[in-house]
Structures are given as C-alpha cells and as structure tokens.
Amino acid sequence: MESISRDYVKKKYDPVVPGGINEWPVVALSRSRQEFIEEVAEESIARIKALASTREALIEEIETTVFREKLRIKRNPWAVDPEDDSAFLGIVQEKLLEISQSDDDEEKNEKLDDILKEIVLRYADEIAGNFKKSRYRMTRSIVTFGFARLLNASRARGFWSIFSTQFTLQDKINITGEIDQLRELARKGTIVMVPTHFSNLDSILIGWVINVLGLPAFIYGAGLNLFNIKIISYFLNSLGAYKVDRRKKNMLYLETLKAYSSLAIQRGCHSLFFPGGTRSRSGKIEKRLKLGLLSTAIEAQRVNYQKGKRDALEKIFVVPVTLNYNFVLEAPSLIRQYLKLQGQERYYVENDEYSTSYKIFAFLVKFFTKGSDISVSIGKAMDVLGNYVDTQGQSYDKNGRVIDTQEYFTKDGRIISQNEQREDEYTRMLSERIVNEFHRINKVFPSHLVAFTAFVLLKKKYKKLDLYNLLRLPEEDLIIPYKEFKAAFEKVLMRVHTLYNEGKVNISPHLTGDPHQIINQGLKNVGMYHSKRPLIKNRAGDITTKHLNLLFYYHNRLDGYNLEKYVE
Fold this sequence. Notes:
Layout: H1 25-31, H2 33-51, H3 55-75, H4 85-101, H5 105-127, H6 133-155, E1 173-177, H7 179-188, E2 190-195, H8 202-212, E3 219-223, H9 230-238, E4 241-244, H10 251-266, E5 271-273, H11 291-306, E6 316-324, H12 331-343, H13 357-368, E7 374-378, E8 395-396, E9 402-403, E10 410-411, E11 414-415, H14 420-441, E12 443-444, H15 446-461, H16 467-470, H17 482-501, E13 506-507, H18 515-525, E14 536-537, E15 543-544, H19 548-555
Parallel strand pairs: 1-7, 2-5, 2-6, 3-4, 3-5, 12-13
Antiparallel strand pairs: 6-7, 8-9, 10-11, 14-15
Helix pairs in contact: 2-5, 2-10, 3-4, 4-5, 5-10, 10-11, 11-14, 12-19, 15-17, 15-18, 15-19
C-alpha cells in the first residue's frame, strides 16, 4: 500500500486582506446593519408579492404564517425565541380581521402592505448577524489560547505544563487540501464555503480554520437552535453568524432568509452555510442537499452579471469542506432521531440530548485531553454551476476547456432576468457536484474503517434480520472473532487505498502500516467519548460492541463507497 504523506498545515497564514479587519466585507455590513435589514425587507417583499400576486393570495400566505407560527410556539418553543412572539401574532390577527371588515380596497391594500412589512422586518432583524470586531478578536483569543492550554496540559506532565506553548491547536486539528487556491480566490472574488455537518461544534471549528488560513471572517448560516446553548451562542454572535430557524417553513420567512443570503453575497461577504441543512442524523455524508440557500449563490452571480460585474474580482466561488471526526458528541441522540424517523413504530426512542453549555465544555475538555485528532479537508473550488476553477478564477468544463459562466445566464447577447426553472436546474447541478466533492475529499480514519467492517460483518452474519431487529440483538450475539475481523478489515483497507489512488477518497496517515496496529488505533479512537463504546476488544481479544446503534452511526461514515462487497 502506498504511503500517505502528512500534508497537514502547521502554520498560521498571513491575512489575505492586507488592510486588516476594517477592510473586511462583513465589517462593512455590520456598520450598515439597519440599512441592510431594510434592504433585505424590501427585496423580500418584492419576492413574496411576485409569488403571491393577488391580494387574496397574499392574505392567505399571511394567515398560513400566523397559524404555523402559533403552532411552533405551542409545540416546539425554544429559549432563544422572542418573548413577545405570541403578542405580535395576536396583533397581526387583529389587523387581518380589520382588513376583512373593510370595504375600501385602497385601505385594504395599505393595511396589508403594512402587515407584510412588519412581519418581514421582524424576520430580517431576527436573521441578521451582528458581527463586532472587539468580540471577534476576544473570541479568537479565547479559542486559540484556552484550547491550546488544555492541549499542552494533556501532552506534558505537571501543573505548569498548562502554560506551555509547545503544542498548538494545529497539532490537534489538521487542515489539508486546496488551501493555497482558497486563499488566492478569496482575494479575487467571493467565497461560499459549504461544509459537511455532524456536530454543534462545527461552526466554532470552521471559524477557527478560517482564521488560521488568514481569511476574512465569513457570515454564517447557523441554526437558531445553537443559540439556546450559551457558550456556542456567544461564539456564533462574535463570529458573524446569521440565524436560520429550521422550524419556520412559511414562505414569508424562507424568502426573507434567501434575500438576506443573496444580498450579502452580492455585497462581497464571504459566506458559509451547511448545505445539508442540519446535522447528519445518520452519520452519513450528506447525499441530498437543501437547495434554498444554495440557490442564493447562483442568484447572486446572475445579479452581479446583470450589474456588469463580470471579471474574476466579482466572481463567486463555491468551496466544499469535509469535517472529519473520530467521535461526535451528539451521536447517541442523533442516531436515535434517525432510527425513529426511518423506523417509525419499530423503534423506541428515549430522550437524551447534549444541549447544555456544561456538557459542551465537558466534551471539549475530554477532546483536548485525549489523543484523537480532527481533520478538515478543503476541496477544489467551483463556480456556481459546479465547474472546477483554477487559482485565477477561470472555469473549466469536464473536458478541461475554459468556459465563461456568464453565457449560462445570457440569451441573444443579454443577461436574462430571473428564470426560476433554469436556476433550479443549475442549483441541482451544483448540489450534485458538491456531494461528489464531499465524498472525494472525505478523509477515512482508522476509527471509520473498524466501525464499518464490524457492522457489515454483523449484518452479514444475521442477513435474515432487518436493521431494526439486528439492533435489538443481545450483546452475547455481537462477538466477532478477531481473526475473522482482521481478515475482513485487510480487504476493506486494500480497497480504500485503491480508491485513494484513483482520487475517489482521502486517507489519514494513520491508515498505513501494519493492519493490526491500524485496528488498535481505530478501536482506541472510535466513539472514545461515549460511556458505552461502539467497538472494543473483549477479554478473549475478540471484537464486540457495547452500543450497536453507535456502531451503526460510525459505520455510516463510509456509506456510498460500495465497500460492503469486500467484507466476507
């Protein structure tokens, strides 16, 4: 098997923007926050009226919004929700009643416009980020200094080691991939970064990576639920996050959210959102992406072309990123949610969620005092149509020919205004390319491979059982003789190396050498935080599990590579 080099970044890069933090687009956006909110509201209202083109249709959309919002408050309230939500909805209902009782069409239209503007402005203000330079610097210092101190304390003996600077976060969090291209393109155009999403810690991690690579702060599309957790809320507020509430499915909110993203990208703000929409419940790399926010990158590119911005300095670049963990804090509750959704009545769920600052902090301490690494893989940059680009921002088709993306928005020599069907198709094309890139740059850890091999062996041993009956098997039926496990593991390992040599997946340096040592490395790290380990050696030296659901979760990381047929 070919040796894998350790190409990890071990330095901090100089800033991409030489003028410093005051020159960052996100800072300019924060200076004009209220003005931008009003611009977002104006754009959102235009979108909503285009979709609900009659007074009756608009009234129906507002009534639907009120109904769904009241249901949200009753069934799924969050601590971060505004206290006056119910009161506001009551006022909207009263105003809708006044409209229904009026005979004056002009008065009806004016009142309806007022209601729509109030709702949309409220949404825009809720969504809008609030980046502050001083808090950004403080957060950056806390993350870098605090976590590095924990790391040094774990690597050296004695109390005074906590003040050592021998080890840095980059000894723990490894950054690989197309780093130089990303930095160069950040100078030339606007970056839209789209990472995989497995943990609530992803936003903090990717923010740290952006800082280490010398990039300006990005605006974030972060789930509003994260703001329920105080420690994460503080970091996200400091890092320029804008809030995305997945509970709100009404058209008024969704159009406001898309307007915010599109207008921010048009202003040159580097943007980041998780295209899977939420954390992967199954542990699998996302295969079907949410297209709403992704479509805003395509829209922003088209609008820039309409405004005459067509050189590389105005181009939008999409950069996929995979976050690779040996263990995920929330894995037990995530896999239960997945199994409940897939199995319905066949699977019973207990309530257990890691959702407090204390548990997050305990996890961080555990992580930095253990020997487990995180890897962040930067993929090749694409244009908004999914074509690879070079460091100069030029796009290339699958045959390596230079193409002009403006032509995809042009007809008879003119830039076409919005064509929903066409841009929906472009969004679908882009999402497929992102998914392919996710799988190509995914970094396989020994922990992923041992979990995959063990679960497939158990599944084939009990091939007459469906997934849910398999997961109910008692522990005494979940033992795999080590010799059998090692033989299967070696075959899967060889196949993974073949895929790596074909450029279809990435590999951790720990996945080379003696298979016995690789297995031990994987067993040591897989699900290491959890009290019930997904995979262990028993006293006889054979392989077994204390938590089959978790083993299934960690096995799923390698779903989609057709490795099952190599396990016998």
